[in-house]
Design a protein that fits this description.
Elements lengths: L4 E2 L10 E9 L8 E2 L3 E6 L4 E5 L2 E5 L3 E5 L16 E9 L1 H10 L4 H9 L4 E3 L3 H9 L7 H16 L3 E3 L10 H17 L6 H7 L4 H12 L3 H19 L4 H7 L5 H12 L3 H8 L6
Parallel strand pairs: 1-3
Antiparallel strand pairs: 2-8, 4-7, 4-8, 5-6, 7-9, 9-10
Helix pairs in contact: 1-2, 2-4, 3-4, 5-7, 6-7, 8-11
GO molecular function, one term: DNA-binding transcription factor activity
Protein name: AraC family transcriptional regulator
Keywords: DNA-binding, Transcription, Transcription regulation
């Protein structure tokens, strides 16, 4: 299993914008929690699924378009995808430089507000999704200069469109030391979500008091350790429901839940349906 990590975007060292396109059929990518200093746009032309961003799990249908701010924890979008054909366009760029342009050029001020809001993660629906998507599909085949100019147009269109927030709380700027601590916490959660993992135990391993750890983690991620652990467990349960024929009770315990009533309650709160209903509704759509 892959561990959560700080994703280093090496391509941005020599270019301001990085873009790629991926398409496959019957893909069941498990994904992993991660964050990175680059801003990220993810466009899925079609399909249904779940997003894991910040402190929330939300659903999308008939395609998706999101803008994620720097250092915002999220999972790969393949992790929650529920349709047969998975296709995504991903654009990563250095938002800090564009934010600085907004301080000097009035034309960029709406974009500056957009990038500030992106610290919570933003989603866009139709018709903005389709209009902006037509621009995004051009990016992977353009040279760097053309790519940058199209990115400016995409950000302009986004700033003029209606959008919603993905994460309930804004992620505040934190030190590199605390970001590294958060990375270690997510790595630990990804590795040991199935056992009784406590915030006291993690705090001790980081050499922090329990109160300091809880404060730093909440400030860095916008959520509590308990909620982050629960969200990863729900995500793992969703994967097992679609990828195995194991009984729901077995899946609950394999995902780290010791109480069936708690598992059913949290699952319904996050996914908006029961585990059995989720399996029945989506298992056929991901068969290879």
């Amino acid at each position: 299993m892959k561990k959560a990590s700080l994703q280093r975007i090496s391509s941005l060292e020599n270019a301001s914008v990085h873009a790629f396109h991926f398409k496959t059929q019957g893909y069941r990518g498990g994904g992993f929690w991660h964050y990175h200093p680059a801003y990220e746009i993810v466009y899925l032309p079609a399909g249904n699924g779940r997003r894991f961003v910040g402190n929330t799990i939300t659903r999308f249908a008939d395609g998706d378009l999101v803008l994620l701010g720097a250092d915002l924890p999220h999972n790969c979008f393949s992790a929650g995808f529920e349709s047969e054909v998975f296709e995504e366009y991903v654009v990563q760029f250095e938002g800090e430089k564009i934010q600085q342009m907004g301080l000097y050029f009035s034309e960029f001020r709406k974009v500056l507000g957009l990038l500030q809001d992106a610290s919570r993660g933003l989603y866009f629906e139709r018709p903005a999704l389709q209009k902006i998507g037509k621009e995004l599909i051009k990016l992977p085949r353009l040279n760097q200069t053309e790519r940058l100019l199209v990115l400016f147009r995409v950000l302009k269109l986004m700033s003029e469109s209606k959008y919603g927030f993905l994460s309930e709380k804004q992620h505040l700027p934190v030190s590199s030391l605390n970001l590294e601590r958060v990375r270690k916490v997510y790595a630990r959660i990804e590795k040991e979500y199935h056992r009784n993992l406590s915030s006291n135990e993690v705090a001790r391993e980081l050499g922090m008091t329990h109160s300091s750890f809880c404060r730093v983690f909440a400030k860095s991620t916008g959520t509590t350790f308990k909620q982050a652990l629960s969200d990863v467990r729900i995500q793992k349960a969703c994967d097992l429901l679609l990828q195995t024929t194991n009984p729901i009770k077995t899946i609950a315990f394999d995902s780290g839940f010791n109480s069936m009533s708690l598992f059913h309650r949290l699952f319904k709160e996050k996914i908006q349906c029961t585990p059995s209903g989720y399996r029945k509704k989506f298992s056929k759509s991901v068969e290879v």
